[in-house]
Write a structure and sequence with these properties.
Blueprint lengths: L13 H8 L4 H8 L4 H9 L1 H4 L3 E3 L7 H13 L5 E3 L7 H13 L5 E3 L7 H13 L5 E3 L7 H13 L6
Protein name: F-box domain-containing protein
Keywords: Repeat
InterPro entries: F-box_dom (IPR001810), Leu-rich_rpt (IPR001611), LRR-containing_regulator (IPR052201), LRR_dom_sf (IPR032675)
Length: 167
């Protein structure tokens, strides 16, 4: 009778997980491994490369719908990243809604750049509602988007209520 050892994430030694993480880039760790399970979150919290993650630059990165969902989930649970650059990306309305939803919950993101990202007045409605609740984000770059008079008025109204940030 042979005894087989069944390995799972719950029984895998932390050092082995670290060796796996050493072969992944930080954006993959951020997008794919955040919030998978409590054990993996605890391992990530103690992983040196991840603990120092402060900035992610996805400029001109073609993020899929699934990628946008993963990013939104990761941002909700993010404890390290303070700067996120999503410039030069043609966001669709559904992706902006996911991002805005994540911004409502974000407790660490201080700077967000969305320049040249196809953001319009409808998108600004979602972003301004999110920023009414978010008191952490201090800098939001919306240069070179499709924001019209309606969007500008929405952002100005939000800024009157919340003087923490600069747009």
């Amino acid at each position: 009778m042979s005894s087989k050892t069944i390995l799972s994430l719950h029984t895998l030694p932390v050092e082995m997980v670290y060796r796996i993480l050493d072969n992944l880039n930080l954006s993959t760790i951020f997008w794919s491994l955040e919030t998978v399970c409590q054990r993996l979150n605890a391992i990530l919290d103690s992983y040196d490369r991840y603990k120092t993650l402060r900035s992610l630059d996805f400029t001109e990165n073609g993020i899929s719908d699934e990628g946008a969902q993963s990013l939104a989930i990761a941002l909700k649970h993010n404890t390290t990243c303070t700067t996120l650059d999503l410039s030069h990306r043609r966001f669709r309305n559904v992706e902006v809604r996911l991002l805005a939803d994540a911004l409502q919950c974000s407790t660490t993101l201080i700077t967000l750049s969305l320049e040249y990202s196809n953001i319009g007045d409808e998108d600004i409605k979602h972003i301004s509602r999110a920023l009414e609740k978010n008191r952490i984000l201090t800098t939001l770059n919306l240069e070179y988007n499709r924001i019209g008079t309606e969007g500008i008025i929405l952002m100005l109204n939000m800024l009157q209520e919340n003087t923490v940030r600069s747009v």
